[in-house]
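Reading group handout, session on sequence-to-structure problems. Before we discuss, look at one worked example. The prompt was deliberately terse, the way you'd type it at a terminal:

> structure Hexosyltransferase

The input record follows.
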Amino acid sequence: RAQPCPTMRLATLLAALRPALPLLLGLSLGCSLSLLRAAWGRVDSQDGCPGTGDEGLPSSGAQPVAEREAPGSEREEFRPRIVPYARDPNKPHRKVLRTRYIQTELGFHERLFVAVLTSKATLNTLAVAVNKTVAHHFPRLLYFTGLRNAKVPHGMVLVAHGDERPIWLMYETMHYIHQHFGSDYDWFYVMQDDTYAQAEQIKALVMHLSINQDVYLGRAEEFIGGDEQARYCHGGFGYLLSRSLLLKLHQHLDSCRNEILSVRPDEWLGRCIIDFLGITCISQLQGQHYRTYEMAQNAKPEKKDEEEFQAALAVHPVSDVTLMYRLHKRFSRIQLDRAYQEIQELQVQIRNLTSLTPAGEAGLTWPVGINAPFLPKSRFEVISWDYFTEQHLFSCPDGSPKCELSGASKADVSDIIELALEQLNSRYQPLLRFSKQQLLNGYRRFDPTRGMEYTLDLLLEAATQKGHTHLLVKRVSLVRPLSKVEIIPMPYVTEATRVQLVLPLTVQDLDFVANFLDMFAMNTLDTHDNALLTLVFIYDPYDAQRVSKVDVFAGVKAMVGELEKRYAEVKIPWISVKTEVPSQVKLMDIVSKKHPVDTLFFLASVWTEVNMEFLNRCRMNTISNWQVFFPVHFQEFNPALMYHGEQAASSSTDFLRDGHFDRHSFAEACFYNSDYMTARTKLAADILDQDEVLESMEVFDVFLHYSGLHLFRAVEPGLVQKYALRSCNPRLSEELYHRCMLSTLEGLASRSHLAMALFEQEQANST
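And the output record:
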């Protein structure tokens, strides 16, 4: 029998192993590189410790570099390590309390704290001027005085130490700042009330300084008869202390008070810092200069144009209140001119760069540097223009076609006309001088991408240099751009507050109570949400007389009993009221007296489908003594008109499709009982027992006219109401009945579907 040759066997073997060759080569290459890397690492570890006396490998093998380097070495490696949690069984377990704000837990500090030293003679004059000019520009500012029982001017936070000695006032102020704000701020600025400080410039200064060193920054002055090298910061021009310096200084304040004698408090503080911390006052740090200007007597700020004055962060002395306001006006104008100059320079740069873009100069927007107008993708996204004249507005909040121009709108129109004339005169003077005769047409709209846009048709009188006049019509376009967005400070609220639902029920609501109770049980009781329910049964006089024989709400009470059996820990109380006209205010008067003042009410309607998402927003949007929440629910249309008896196409991504937000309904509201009681007390004093007035009011009207709180009115996608045929009580006031009818009629269907229904009806009638 013929034997296969060795060459054929080798070829067959290679053919079988060919698919695995890349894997074998990869494994071989990986192992080789790993061995080479281990060898290089061993050599590096040997060479990294010169002078240790170990010329070769130690017998126990190479040790990690981190173990053989000296502590504090720059090459020390910080390796993460797992610290096992071991609970001591002998100690009681305590729940970990989280901080209220995340920045507290992470150790973040606010940037700047300002302390203003004042006295009895200047508290009601210069201190008030400081408060009106620059105080609102600083994040936190307090006034310190040595007066006892001082009367605090309006809008100021005053700390009275009870001793008017200057050194004692400085000592107590430093001690107070360290005790109350030492762990909250990075920088502390101390000034006198006869100092004008440029708040924005000082905030910009601290933003450019590092907080990792001890800083004593101000106008450096020499001690009288002291060391030539030592300097203290002049108190009249203000000075800046870092947090680290304040923490070190605090432990020496008592020694400084007992050992250092001085007449001036700023010298005393400077000597204390120098003697115990070895830090002298400086006027320059990290490339930043603390520039000051000494104001001469009878000087006029309006004529100060020198660079030293314009660059000053602090001006001293300010002898009277009028000078303080004049300085503030002058520096505000300087900052405004700088801003305009910077805007012009940026606009020139934008024009130069736009020509290099693919769009070229055609891509340049107006005004230069402002976002382009919003481009709608469909007719539903078109932003409409509002037409106005100097007397009337033709797009009114209440939906009426014409209303009087008043309040903020009137001030806005007047301001924009004056600004248009100012811009025209600045462009054409001295050749032409324009004066307004009449506003012919005015248009405005709010573009969320850029701001408020205006188009004005002005009838102007143009006067030449020779005195000739001529009437002409000129169209002007203006934009009031959106400025810097500011976060409005709001009180702290949580989602743990208990919500008390209040549900008024009439005889007409009986068909919908079962669905409400089922949704309440499923979304709150089953999920153990912190919410309770109170029912208010509204009997008319006829039903109230025969309640002992035939109770119209007996079925509802039976449903409540079933719920209480199913959920043993739940109690659903009810209140019975007899009235012909169910006034929302009168009902809340009864409910309010039966609950504590800190109760958070959610006034609901029988068509409301309560869910956890909305209840959380009710908790977050309602703030005691600050804000009440009136959500705008989503009302679904009549399915008979929308689908003509066909099944609606369900869509999980567009669940708010076949309906609208009912802005005519104020039935739902979230508010605290204390806020309602306060507003109700003011209302009672105003109407003087005229109870018939209450029948024409809702809870919304009470808060709007008598509370002074923020009324937060917003669309609420979490409140969806199914369509139901509702009837409006004809005994309601004219306004409330009209509002109820509008809500009912607009909830039938959209305009297009109503038009289609009318068209089909006409077609059917014609045939």
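Points for discussion. First: Residues 104-329 form a domain with the Spore Coat Polysaccharide Biosynthesis Protein SpsA; Chain A fold (CATH 3.90.550.50). Second: Residues 209 and 287 are 9 Å apart (CA to CA).
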